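Consider the following input, taken from an annotated entry for Iron chaperone (Clostridium yunnanense).
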Amino acid sequence: MEVFQEYLDRIDNLENRARVEEILAWIIKRFPSLGTRIAWGQPMFTDHGTFIIGFSVAKHHLAVSPEKAGLNHFSEEILKAGYSCSKELIRIPWDSAVDFSLLEKIIEFNITDKIECSTFWRK
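Applying the prediction step yields:
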């Protein structure tokens, strides 16, 4: 979590900060082999140098970025969870529960799908 501390400290809303910290800590515990870093001003997780998932804070939601392939693969489940999405991200409203099982599936999908990927982003 140390790598994310400065980012977390900049989240003014303490409830939102606690939620982001909970999610990041859960990922670290559940996927201890993933790398952690701040890039493009946001916390993200990597596997063998390739992007797996990233997060950013917005006024009304936490934005989750699993790349387009992850979004497309889980689009129905994302909508069933009550989240909206754009072309590149999932929006989890601050007042909605976090669907950790869906988050886990998305991360596992990206790890498996990108196992032979040698670039940061999918081509």
